Amino acid sequence: MAERLKFSPAEQLEQALAADRLSHAYLLVGGSLEERLEVARRVAAALNCLAGKGGQACGLCPSCRQMLGGNHPDFHYLEPRGASLKIDQVRKLELELRLKAFQGRAKVAVLSRVEDLTLEAANCLLKILEEPPPGVYFFLLAAQPDAVLPTIRSRCQVVYLPSRGLPSVGWLYWQEILSSDLRRLMVELLPRLEREEDLRAVIEGLILACREHLVWELTGEEGLLFSHGFGQGGDGLSGSECPPGPDNIAGDRPVSSGEDVTRLDSRWIPPEVLWRCYKHLNKARIYLEQNANRRLLLEVSLLNLYRELKSGSI
Predict the structure, then answer these.
(1) How many CB atoms lie within 10 A of CB 41?
(2) Quick one: CA torsion of 223, 166, 82, 147, rounded to 10 degrees?
(3) N or C: which end of the chain has fewer CB within 10 A?
(4) CB neighbour list of residue 271: distance below 8 Å, 6 or more residues apart
(5) 112 and 237 assigned to the same domain
(6) What is the crossing angle of helices 9-18 and 33-48, to 10°?
(7) CA–CA separation, 68 and 13 (whole Å)
(8) Which of 289, 305, 270, 100 is nearest to 186 (CA)?
(9) How far is CA 203 from CA 57, 84, 274, in A?
């Protein structure tokens, strides 16, 4: 079940807490990792606040001060060790969650980048979600719901955070990749990407842009896009940067005589090609987390994207 309301994600969850209808498991997607984590922390603070009202933490009680200091005994944060979340991490978390809350209120478990769970760890987590310990709340964080195993996703309520900042940079880079020949990719785009301070976030933005493009080509449904509503006075992308529609990227016109066939824009791109591009970008993110050489990683990734997109151009 996905929630897309006029309230902020944190406000949605605080209202659910105030009405005593907070679910035991949420999947927070979109936004940046820091934004997803901040929402989880805010709700965790409200759950354990000793003087809060209306589902909001007071920020002053001993429990709130522990949350602010990052040392609350009933707040458990799990992030990948290396490139993945491993089964021994999830098993250790399960043992901790089955103990009684230190302060007698709620235990909160936040798992970052759940798209990087190993299969064994995912199966272990699934069993916990199916039979959660009493008084335990789960917040699973992921850049995109598509990358999370459907069995885990189905056990959670999905809350979307608005994408802003770096994801919009990813959209701009994706548009450049679509409109560039090989020389421009390697001579102009590659050095700019290499200089990006937070390259992982930029690659996540590219992954999101490719995903949006794929969803649009498959369905044509704007409501399925994370950027739905952008360019209408809200945060994120301007109207000119909205996901590609049929008029500006899915035009399946034939190539005219003498046209530069090394340019990839203005052509319909088959979904299977976009899916392979999506997988190339996900591999790039994983290799980056394994401390691969940035220059080599970007060269291979751009070359792979160019070859895929050129193979699918008409």
Answers:
(1) 21
(2) 10
(3) N
(4) 214, 217, 218
(5) no
(6) 20
(7) 19
(8) 305
(9) 35, 17, 15
Range(s) of the domain holding residue 281: 166-312
User: Of all helices (H) and strands (E), which one includes residue 138?
Assistant: strand 136-142
pLDDT in tens, 140-163: 999 877 778 999 999 999 988 875
Residue 175 and residue 38 in one domain: no
What 3-state DSSP class applies to 28?
Answer: strand
The rounded distance, in Å, linking the Cα atoms of 275 and 278 is 5
- Phi–psi pair at 55, nearest 5 degrees: 80, 10
Tokens representing residue 186 in the block: 């390697």
Residues 63 and 38 in one domain: yes
Q: How far apart are CA 274 and CA 227, in angstroms?
A: 18
Per DSSP, the three-state class of 81 is: strand
In the chain, where does DSSP find H-type helix? 9-18, 33-48, 62-69, 87-97, 119-130, 150-153, 166-179, 182-184, 190-195, 199-219, 271-289, 294-312
- Phi-psi label, residue 113: left if phi above 0, alpha if psi -120 to 50, beta otherwise: left
Count, in order, helices (H) and strands (E) of the chain: 12, 6
Q: What are phi and psi of 257, to 5 degrees?
A: -60, 130
- Is there a single domain that holds both residue 26 and residue 137? yes
Kindly give, in sequence order, each residue whose CB lies less than 8 Å from that of residue 123, ignoring residues fewer than 6 positions away: none
CA 85 to chain centre: 16
Q: What is the dihedral of CA 240, 244, 247, 253, to 10 degrees?
A: 130
pLDDT, tens digit (0-9, with 9 covering 90-100), for 169-203: 788 899 899 989 999 999 999 999 988 877 888 89
Q: Are residues 104 and 36 in the same domain?
A: yes
Q: Classify the C-alpha dihedral 138-143-144-147 as positive or negative.
A: negative
pLDDT tens sequence across 244-260: 433 333 333 333 334 34
pTM: 0.58
8 A C-beta contact, residue 167 and residue 225: no
Structure tokens at 51: 């003087």
